[in-house]
User: Which sequence fits this backbone?
């Protein structure tokens, strides 16, 4: 159990900057998720914390200790890799007990801790098996078990679920969350899957090109994305972002959301929009509500009518696709019915739920 | 298979029959008189009569095993370095090693002879061992490099986060996984040393260092060739090599890494 502290952490490969001046404090027991597209520096950050990658600048503290020049073995961390990296020549229990054996813990204690770990992970029947005799999910469990037995200060997960099929991934996700609640240890978890990030994290860090774009709880980053990148990265389907002109008619500000379609500017943001000729409008798919499903509050908002290009029924909802300013836009229709292509549907939008982003900086207004 | 085995079979048959029968015309495929005469001549208790095969065998074993062990140790470390580390001139050094392997050994025999003569290494087992090590190292590096490359680097990384030093990770995880490759390199290095003739014929003189392939020539005299003796000593050469290959072969189980990572 320990706090992990990164100060001005930087990693360069030649002239290429992988991580730039990262400052981050991860308190005890926090489940922190680093998320971002490939090449954003999230794995590099994790590997630097583990000590597997040299750092080009800055400081890493685990607990109160500066670990910059410490070997991975002296950092008291455990890492779970994407491809499991189980020792193929050892049985499950040997895999689990390996770190303790290296630490010269006496055999009876190793046995005790391994027994405890297999019980936590439900691997009792597989103790004598080799990794090649295990299924993907079981291997992943052994990899986690191997991390658990050491009782590390921090767990580092590097995309641990991306090799599993969708069903197993959901199941293991739940298990990881339960495990964290049981073990109460600091967890730093890297993923490119925003659903994993949202479901697991106490706090999410969204990274892009070596920089932190936003830090916050899953709900915070979902509801208040700081820029277009975060807005489109977090949430499924991604937020609809439409480039629009700002029009001033009779001293009233409007956003030209489509040809011949003006949407009134949300009252709370009027002042900030006055000077901008253009703006990015972000609306979550669930905030474009077909009138037939809308609540009274939504009915008080703004509405428009569009013909549907495509409808994707998902069972609990149907996703409706249409175009605004030549950009594909998705609306979520709960209580779905059969939708014909070309059918005209009326949508309601609660103006206070839309997001506006500056046209130049792409930052939230 | 038949074509490969036929000369071997002929050697075995001829080793156990008198010389006269080998030279008989028309050729006699199956010996009428089985005899172990040539073997008793080589390994008689009162000392050898025909050829000091025991000394040659001893030299061969010492030279081949020692040079193999050294070549494998160096090759393993070198192969690991090439597979895992990036250093300046890596590719050039690797190419250099491969080119060194491409030079025919015999072309080096004269310079080697002169050099070894000056260093006093002629007719010593040590001198031969050095040459065989030099000959085998590029090969063992190349082979083990390939095997280490097949082991995902996460293996050593996870071992290091599990509390291993780099050396412990190598010893406990990567080395066992590269076992088949190292065994294969070992067999090849051993057989190369065991069978080598050209350089040994230049560098050895007496029973102090002569190996079996060179010893075989003892059966060649000015006017006669003792075919039976030659075949007998060939058998002495073949048998240990075959036995060793059989022993090591069972370690050549590839696909050992399967299951450790998502395949």
Assistant:
């Amino acid at each position: 159990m320990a706090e992990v502290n990164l100060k001005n952490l930087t990693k360069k490969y030649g002239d290429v900057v992988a991580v730039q001046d990262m400052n981050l404090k991860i308190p005890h027991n926090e489940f922190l998720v680093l998320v971002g597209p490939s090449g954003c520096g999230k794995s590099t950050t994790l590997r630097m914390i583990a000590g597997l990658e040299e750092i080009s600048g800055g400081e890493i503290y685990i607990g109160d200790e500066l670990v910059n020049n410490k070997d991975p073995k002296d950092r008291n961390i455990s890492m779970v890799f994407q491809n499991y990296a189980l020792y193929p020549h050892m049985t499950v229990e040997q895999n689990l007990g390996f770190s303790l054996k290296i630490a010269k813990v006496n055999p009876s204690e190793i046995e005790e801790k391994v027994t405890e770990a297999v019980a936590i992970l439900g691997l009792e029947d597989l103790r004598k098996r080799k990794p090649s005799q295990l299924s993907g999910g079981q291997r992943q469990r052994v990899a986690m078990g191997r991390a658990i037995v050491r009782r590390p200060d921090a767990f580092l997960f590097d995309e641990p679920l991306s090799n599993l099929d969708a069903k197993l991934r959901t199941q293991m996700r739940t298990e990881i969350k339960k495990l964290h609640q049981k073990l109460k240890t600091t967890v730093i978890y890297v993923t490119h899957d925003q659903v994993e990030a949202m479901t697991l994290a106490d706090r999410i860090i969204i990274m892009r090109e070596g920089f932190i774009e936003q830090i916050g709880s899953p709900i915070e980053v979902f509801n208040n994305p700081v820029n277009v990148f975060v807005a489109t990265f977090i949430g499924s389907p991604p937020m609809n972002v439409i480039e629009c002109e700002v029009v001033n008619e009779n001293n009233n500000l409007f956003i030209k959301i489509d040809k011949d379609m003006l949407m009134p500017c949300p009252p709370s943001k009027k002042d900030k929009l006055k000077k901008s000729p253009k703006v990015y409008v972000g609306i979550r798919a669930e905030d474009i509500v077909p009138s037939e499903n809308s609540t009274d509050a939504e009915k008080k908002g703004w509405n428009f009518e569009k013909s549907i290009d495509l409808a994707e029924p998902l069972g609990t909802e149907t996703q409706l696709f249409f175009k605004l300013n030549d950009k594909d836009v998705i609306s979520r229709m709960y209580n779905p019915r059969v939708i014909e292509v070309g059918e005209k549907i009326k949508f309601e939008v609660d103006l206070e739920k839309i997001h506006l982003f500056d046209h130049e900086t792409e930052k939230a207004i | 298979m038949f074509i490969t085995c036929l000369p071997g079979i002929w050697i075995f048959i001829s080793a156990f029959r008198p010389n006269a029968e080998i030279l008989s015309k028309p050729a006699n495929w199956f010996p009428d008189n089985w005899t172990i005469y040539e073997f008793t001549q080589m390994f008689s208790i009162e000392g050898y009569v025909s050829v000091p095969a025991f000394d040659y065998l001893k030299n061969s074993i010492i030279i081949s095993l020692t040079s193999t062990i050294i070549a494998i140790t160096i090759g393993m470390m070198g192969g690991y370095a090439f597979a895992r580390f990036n250093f300046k001139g890596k590719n050039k050094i690797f190419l250099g090693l491969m080119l060194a392997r491409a030079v025919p050994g015999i072309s080096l025999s004269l310079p080697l002879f002169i050099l070894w003569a000056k260093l006093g290494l002629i007719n010593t087992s040590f001198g031969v061992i050095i040459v065989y090590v030099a000959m085998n190292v590029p090969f063992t590096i190349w082979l083990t490099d390939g095997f280490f490359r097949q082991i995902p680097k996460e293996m050593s990384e996870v071992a290091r986060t599990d509390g291993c030093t780099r050396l412990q990770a190598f010893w406990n995880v990567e080395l066992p996984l590269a076992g088949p490759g190292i065994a294969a390199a070992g067999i090849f290095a051993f057989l190369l040393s065991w069978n080598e003739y050209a350089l040994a014929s230049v560098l050895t003189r007496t029973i102090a260092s002569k190996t079996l392939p060179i010893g075989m020539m003892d059966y060649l005299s000015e006017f006669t060739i003792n075919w039976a003796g030659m075949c007998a000593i060939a058998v002495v050469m073949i048998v240990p090599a075959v036995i060793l290959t059989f022993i090591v072969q069972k370690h050549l189980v590839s696909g050992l890494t399967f299951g450790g990572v998502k395949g």
Observations:
- Residues 283 and 354 of chain A are 5 Å apart (CA to CA).
